[in-house]
Amino acid sequence: MSQTYYTIKHPAENELIIQKSKFIAHVTHIESETDAQQIISSVNKTHWKSNHNCYAYIVGKDNKVQKANDDGEPSGTAGIPILEVLKKKNLRDTLVIITRYFGGIKLGAGGLIRAYSQATSAGITASGIVERLPVILYRVTLDYSLLGSVENSLQHSSYITNETIYAENVTLEMSVREDEATDFTDWMNNLTNGQSPILKVGKSFVEVNLT
Predict the structure, then answer these.
(1) How far apart are CA 3 and CA 94, in angstroms?
(2) What is the pLDDT of residue 210?
């Protein structure tokens, strides 16, 4: 069974000024390390005049891949603090790059850790967080005579109708949480007296906004 997990809602940029240095957070959803490296390369090209483009990301099932990079900042003062914020917020498939333009005031190791942590948290707040719930995709074929009662029952259920297709029969394209799959097929068979074919067509995720 797939796992429920948290990730960012949408890509975002957020800027903070800390002790005259500019910290720009770039927060992005990724599906692979290849995605991460392509985005890091793009930010490096866009902000080639910056002093640092530090980053961290977590990607893959069970948070399999975790990477952090200080990009010239003192060891452990940038990439790891970014990564720790991602871990604290239980985020997966997420890349955060913090671009720093030095403002002339040295922050020291503790100041840098606080600054990169703060910039990361602010960037994630700007992006928002969603919970991704694993679902099974079903296709249910109904006779028109059953449509009214089925639609009425669906309005009072947790099952999601993605699309309704009207042809010789009615086809419902549906998303059902994995932990409700058995209940759903039993429920639909009882509702239609076993007259409606229920076909499992794939797996996906649905997103629930948290922030």
Answers:
(1) 16
(2) 80
Q: CA 97, CA 40: separation in Å to the nearest integer?
A: 7
Q: What integer pLDDT is reported at residue 172 of this predicted model?
A: 96
Q: What is the CATH number of the domain that holds 193?
A: 3.30.70.240
Give the single-character DSSP code of 126. Answer: H
161 neighbors 170 (Cβ within 8 angstroms): no
User: In angstroms, rounded to a whole number, what is the distance separating the alpha carbons of residues 118 and 67?
Assistant: 19
Domain that holds residue 77: 5-127
- Count of positions (residues) in the chain: 211
Burial of 20-46, coded b for 16+ CB within 10 Å and e otherwise, reads ebbbbbbbbbbeeeebbeebbeebeee
Q: Of the candidates 101, 127, 153, which is a domain's last residue?
A: 127
* Percent of the chain with pLDDT strictly greater than 90: 91
Residue 120 and residue 142 in one domain: no
Instruction: Please report whether residue 42 resides in a domain.
Output: yes
CA nearest to 211, candidates 134, 126, 132, 95: 126
Instruction: Give strand pairing partners of 204.
Output: 135
In a domain, 211, yes or no: no
| Residues 102 and 21 grouped into a single domain | yes
